[in-house]
Every structure is written in C-alpha cells, then in structure tokens.
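Appendix B, Record 12. Input sequence as logged:
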Amino acid sequence: MSAWRLEFRLFAAAAGLCALALGSCTTSQPSVEAAPPAPAMAPGIPSSIRPEEVVGRWGYGSYHRPEDLVRTEAAARVACSEPVVIDRGPNGGVMMYLADNAQLQELQLKGSQSGQNYIGPPGPPGGMEDRQIVSFDGRTMVLKWMDPEVDSRYGTSVYVRCAPEGTARVAPHRRTPPPPPPPPRQH
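Logged structural output:
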C-alpha cells in the first residue's frame, strides 16, 4: 500500500470520528436550566452593644496577665490626656485599627448565637481579625484578640471612657467646716 493511501485512510478515519463527535453534541443535548440562585447569607445576629455606645474618647491600656486588669484600668484613665478617638463609620460601624495596620478601618459590631459580642471586619463573628468584647459597661470596655498570635503580642485591650472634650477633670470637692460664729458683741 502506498504512503499516500495510508495517510488518506488515517485522515478519513479522523474526519469520521470528528463527525461522530459533533453529531453527538447536537442530537441529545440536555435542556439547560437556570442555575438555582446562590443562597442568601443569613442576616447576622445584631450585637447587644450599639455603635453609638462605643463612639467617643477613650483612654487605652493593655495587659497580658489577668491580675493586671485593675492597674491597667487606672493607667488607661490617665491616658485620657491623649485619648483614642472612636468615631462612627460611614456604613454604620465604628472606625478602629486592626492589628498591624496603621490605617483606620470601619469595623462592625457583631453578635453571636452564644451571646458574645465582637468587633471586627465584615464576616462571621469570632473571625481571626475580630476582638471579643469581654466586658462593656458604658464606661469601661475590655477587648480580647481572637487570633492567639496577635493576642500574645498586643494583650487584652482596656478602654476607659474619657470626660467629654473641653471638660476638666474635677478633683473631689472637700467641704470645709463653716467658720465659728463671731463672739457676741458687748454693749
């Protein structure tokens, strides 16, 4: 058999296989159905702490050992001379810093099924960039980093609310006893 006939047979066989492949594509094509819509994310559980409650001027301190909490609160109170300012974000969150980032970012207050509250970027509560709100009474806020490595470097944060700007801290007023009455006048 000559070489050209062999090449012709190979070409004809390849063309036949292509025709079969193309024919099967057009004969029994399954009907195309619209893909089901992606499930909507369940709305997050709202935090029991509102952003307005966190906005303000705060003295800041941090500690690594729980027994240092009281000392750190006192140091944070003194730090009101140079307060950390937490403002409201444009989308309803609060403007704060994340670990190792010198740029303010809008963070969300998030609730959870367990009743814990968190502050962090958008996403599920308790993420690695979140801080757990350990305690909050309106005057003092204690936050713990969720990422153990970040927590080991920065410690647990203590924020103590400062007096409104422009008000001086007033020392406790001591009441002095009134002077004794003058002696009676003699005529």
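Strands lie at 56-63, 84-88, 94-96, 105-111, 117-120, 131-136, 140-145, 156-161.
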